[in-house]
């Protein structure tokens, strides 16, 4: 039966096409481009009552028709639509009664509302602003709760400043701020670790660390002596060491490589606040330590060469950071010999790290003038040399800054420095 109706409809359509040579054209633009064709935005009706297509023929022998809509033979005026304010759908309307479809779609939305703080009532908002009436009424005129943040120094909740990140309700803040967990050890930290101290003024050599399942921790100095020993504690994003004397609070990060885990730890001084950033912990003018430790992934053949590569990369990045801030080309040299041997820049080696920017930026031990004569002024608070890497011992009681000497009883570096009491660049490089 269905096939019969489809056949009849097809025959009727073919008869329309046969009577009207324009009826087969599907779009307005194609229709008006053809000679003697015109477009009706509604299907036309022929004089015999037959329903036609939208495109109709008006040439010689054309069958008379009626277009009960917009009829066009040159330009194509788009159909017009109007928003139904109940369903919020764009519906087709007569010419002059609506707008084009894109405009209708861009504005056909349910109304939104914003809270009028003066009247404490919800007013209708501009399109694209506000919320539903239900959401607006739930919060309009209601006093917002006070927000709190965890003070990193006191580990107490305090009232948050306007716009301060991590602000939350007092209840949530107090549930986590300063709450110490002495039982749960972060996944991946238990085991034996090898590493380096990487802050400015680091002690050279390989450090060792053991973290046991019960949270006991021991950090060994490269000399083999115990540097830290105590209990590992966690609170929020901090990792602490606690012993009988006090607590060292630290920032930490754990990363997984193919065969090893990498653990970076910036520990503040005992009893002091946590370092605000890793950069601050790196400085020499505080008691903080920064370590990078590596540990074998279970069942893997460890490649600890990653450790030395990471340390070199870290020092290189730190050097590039100083170079970018100062422009001192000498800062790239890691040893005294390379420093004073620079054939382009005029470099000198300081027995301690130099200071730039009126003492606010710590550099490396190599500093001087660039090859083009430019420079960033610096201060060397130690011994500065442009010709030798042999320095006198400046740490003895007889050679302090407070001692004074006359021209007759002073001694030159060549007179006092022997092979036993001089320091090489590798001993002093930080």
Intertermini distance: 94 Å
- Note the main sheet: 8 strands, antiparallel, barrel
Helical coverage, percent range = 10-25%
Structural class: alpha+beta
Spatial strand arrangement across the major sheet: 13-14-15-16-17-18-19-20
The helix count comes to 10
User: Which stretches are low in confidence, meaning pLDDT under 50 for 5 or more residues running?
Assistant: 4-14, 394-430
How many whole angstroms does the radius of gyration measure? 41 Å
Q: What form results from the Cα inertia axes?
A: elongated
- How much of the sequence is in beta strands? 25-35%
Quaternary structure classification: single chain
The total count of strands amounts to 26
Mean pLDDT: 80
Please provide a brief summary of the model:
By secondary structure, the protein is α+β, with helices and mostly antiparallel strands.
Summarize this structure as a short list of keywords or feature phrases.
430 residues, alpha+beta, 8-stranded antiparallel β-barrel, 3-stranded antiparallel beta sheet, 10 helices, 26 strands, elongated
């Amino acid at each position: 039966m269905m096939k019969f109706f489809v056949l009849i409809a097809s025959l009727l359509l073919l008869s329309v096409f046969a009577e009207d040579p324009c009826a087969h054209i599907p779009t307005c633009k194609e229709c008006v481009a053809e000679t003697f064709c015109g477009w009706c935005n509604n299907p036309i009706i022929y004089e015999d009552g037959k329903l036609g297509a939208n495109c109709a023929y008006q040439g010689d022998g054309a069958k008379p028709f009626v277009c009960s809509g917009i009829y066009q033979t040159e330009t194509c005026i788009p159909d017009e639509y109007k928003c139904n304010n109940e369903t919020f759908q764009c519906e087709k309307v007569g010419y002059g009664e609506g707008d084009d479809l894109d405009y209708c779609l861009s504005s056909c939305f349910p109304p939104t509302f914003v809270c009028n703080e003066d009247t404490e009532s919800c007013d209708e908002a501009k399109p694209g602003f506000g919320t539903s009436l239900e959401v607006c009424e739930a919060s309009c005129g209601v006093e917002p709760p006070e927000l709190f943040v965890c003070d990193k120094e006191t580990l107490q909740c305090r009232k948050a400043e306007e716009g301060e990140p991590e602000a939350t309700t007092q209840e949530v803040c107090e549930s986590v701020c300063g709450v110490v967990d002495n039982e749960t050890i972060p996944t991946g930290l238990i085991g034996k670790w090898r590493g380096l101290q990487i802050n400015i003024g680091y002690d050279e050599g390989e450090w060792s660390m053991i973290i046991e399942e019960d949270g006991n921790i021991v950090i060994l100095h490269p000399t083999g002596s115990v540097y830290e020993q105590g209990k590992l504690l966690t609170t929020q994003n901090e990792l602490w060491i606690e012993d009988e004397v006090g607590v060292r609070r630290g920032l930490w990060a754990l990363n997984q490589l193919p065969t090893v885990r990498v653990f970076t730890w910036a520990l503040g001084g005992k009893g002091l606040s946590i370092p605000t950033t890793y950069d601050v912990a790196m400085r020499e003018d505080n008691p903080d330590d920064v370590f990078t430790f590596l540990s074998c992934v279970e069942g893997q053949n460890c490649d600890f060469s990653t450790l030395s590569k990471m340390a070199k990369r870290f020092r290189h990045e730190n050097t590039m950071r100083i170079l970018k801030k100062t422009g001192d080309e000498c800062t790239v040299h890691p040893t005294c010999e390379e420093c004073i041997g620079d054939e382009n820049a005029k470099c000198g080696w300081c027995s301690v790290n130099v200071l730039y920017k009126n003492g606010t930026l710590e550099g490396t031990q190599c500093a001087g003038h660039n090859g083009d004569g430019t420079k960033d002024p610096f201060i060397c608070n130690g011994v500065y040399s442009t010709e030798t890497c042999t320095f006198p011992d400046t740490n003895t009681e007889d050679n302090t800054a407070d001692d004074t000497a006359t021209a007759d009883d002073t001694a030159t570096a060549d007179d006092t420095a022997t092979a036993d009491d001089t320091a090489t660049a590798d001993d002093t490089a930080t």
